[in-house]
# Entry
Amino acid sequence: MGSRRGPLKSAVPSNVVSPVRRCSRTACGRPAVATLTYVYADSTAVLGPLATYAEPHCYDLCAEHSERLTAPRGWDVVRLAVDPGPARPTGDDLEALANAVREAARPQERAAGAGGGGGGRQADPMEVARRGHLRVLRSPEP
# Structure
């Protein structure tokens, strides 16, 4: 006894899914520009810049819905400034990228350090920890 229904089809083909995050409001497909978070202990709704990662307990809102946002009676709405311009790399970002490129260009040193029982890790007194190719460095003393 076979099913009369055919295989389930997605409303959006998987090869067309956009990497842009969309507004969380029902039936709104506009791009998200802000993230809404509720602080239940303080009865506060916080609306700020779009979060780096989509979180299950936060709501991404488009410009229109973020402007029209209201909170329940007795709640406060805190609106954090949203920077309209694109994020620009800082000096720290560029320095970290340059350091990562330099380290990747030295495969013989990394291989020697891995075979020496972690001897390469102790060579840099500023290094606190390491995970893969990333390093945690101690803040320079003023």
